[in-house]
Amino acid sequence: MFFTYLRRELSGRRKQTAIIASGMALAIALVIIVNGVAAGMKAAQATVLEGIYGVGTDMTVTATPVQNANGQGGRQQVDIAGGAAIAGGGTQNVSVSRLISSPGATTMDAATLAKVQAVSGVSGAAATLSVENVNFSGQLAVAGQTRIPGQGTGRNATPETQQLNRGGIDGAGGSSFNVNRITVLGVDVGSAAIGPLSTISVTDGVGLTAADVTANKALVDATYATNNSLSVGGTVNLGGTDFTIAGLVTNSTSDSSTSSNVYIPLGVAQSLSGLTDKVSTIYVQAKDNNQITAVQTAITTDVSGVTVKTQADLASSVSGSLTSAATLIESLGLWLSIAVLAAAFLIAILFTISGVTRRTREFGTLKAIGWTNGRITGQVAGESLVQGIFGGIIGVAVGLIGVVIVNAFSPSFTASTVASNRPQGGPGGGFGQAAGQMAGQAAQGNAGQVPPGAGAGAGANAAASSLTTIQIHIPIEFTIIGIAVGLAIVGGLLAGAIGGWRASRLSPAEALRSVN
Amino acid sequence: MYTLENVSKVYKQKGKTVTALNGVNLEIPTGQMVAIQGPTGGGKSTLLQMLGALDKPTQGYIAFDKRELSKSSGAKLTKFRGDEVGFVFQSFNLIPTLTAQQNVETALEPLHLPSRERHERARAALESVGLGDRANHVPSELSGGQQQRVAIARALVKNPDVLLADEPTGNLDEDTRDEIMDVLEKLWKDKGLTLIVVTHDSAVAKRAQRRLVIKDGQVSEAK
After folding, report:
1. What is the pTM of this model?
2. What is the CATH number of the domain that holds B205?
3. Are B89 and A365 within 8 A, CB to CB?
4. ipTM of the complex as predicted
């Protein structure tokens, strides 16, 4: 009798059933789409963040930057003449290659790696050393060269004299040279699952293995290789040493902290750059994703002088339309879902109560012929539950169609990431200024000394951020669908419980009197 | 069968006190056909509700076969109605979305019978009122007289001891009225049940063995 009455009642009162089911369907569809979009945004943000860290990395450890009194990040010197004095008078041809610490980057003792690995909750860690290969080639004017008197720079002076007296192209008294920089990352070849090696893919040749820990082998970025006519089997000179190119790679990351022109074994980078026992970044993987914050705190406590950043910390540095949209969806989407669900539940409850009121005579009669309150309440609740389930099923279908439509359009958003904690001191100005400063040092007898931050100020700032375009894909999560159907059932039960309570409160005599 | 002693029923409606029954004393033996007449608002329906355990008196004693109804719990009264009382209403009170057969089966729901037995008894009840061929029609597809016959079938399908009819012909024309009363009388005689009919129609009242008059909440035998 229960199912017969239920089936006849729902099919006999189609309008009410349709209204209640439609309200529920709309709410459920919206919950699926909004939560799907939020999940898609989160996945997109995770993709951006993965590009910074790579798969398997939960946090990074760097030395806490120390600002000096002048606001500069520290001076660097590059001896391009090997310490020998340059004879005065005339110019000298120079061609040197030096591996130096990346300007503005901080380093810490390599022993920090072991300390981090020993922290409770750390599953694994890998260290890198970020350096630059600076190549100087050209002519360097030497101190002692005098101006040719009487000629100055006027039209009576010869072009050569004019050039000499003006100080040459760079105003440094006759020097003319080029400075090339390429980024080099010393990587732990024994830890391919964490850090930069987890973000690169070998497109030609082979990768670096644990056997290459002291080898002069290099991986070269494929785009850099193409632009500089490099290939597998060839060589690239770093710090005056030829490295065999073992493979060409592409990087899936969007940030320069894990991308580089060239990758070489960590120990070799340390040795060549003179930064023995130094590392710039340690990439850490936690044992449990739920313990990342605790591990972050433990590392900060156990290891002094370091800054630990997690993906959550980096998430705050991600900007762009992706972040704006994600924030909007998260806050507005949540409240929108709650509001629509509340409205759907209210509609279901009100229509159920209305239906019970219209069926006063019916329920009074049923009570008169012996139906208990519980039986009548169960009947009303069953009808509401089925209406809620109808709404849930339709809502899931509409929600999935909405997801398919959004994915078909594949909306794209931009994300800008800032991952560096380098100090922002030091002069900028590009390579021209660096060349002038270097020539000036040479004129003073400090040939080969590269002034601090030469040409690197702008470079350091530029390297700390990157722009990525991400296409949003809404995942179909069965958990969300299950929750949505559950909400529809809850809504139906709630409406049925309230409606049934109203029906059970009816006294049969009152119900029949109200009819008569 | 029924014993009523000093039964009163008072309602409060919009701040006013209404005395529907005022010290009613009455005995109705088993198997009697009784007609209760009276003007509108006289207390006829309230008396029927007391007899059918649809409501409790404000004061007094009501017993059915020596079982007190006036102080029984709601659950016991519900069971009493489900097992032993059949109701026929003026407006038929059929469930509009159910067929004639399904309407009759609703009266068997409290008995928790197997579905097959329920179907068979409902079909038999419909045939006893001459509507075996209308079993699958919904009330909107039946005439007034047919709907009232379905209601009578619903009332009798559980073989009650007493049938209470509240203005059973009130919404019917004269021919149909006589038709329905013929059905009720025949069933009363065939099944030996106690039939109590509330009516304002003298033609209906004349068919009863016993006629009572209720006025201003008080019951007396009709002359």
Report:
1. 0.60
2. 3.40.50.300
3. yes
4. 0.92
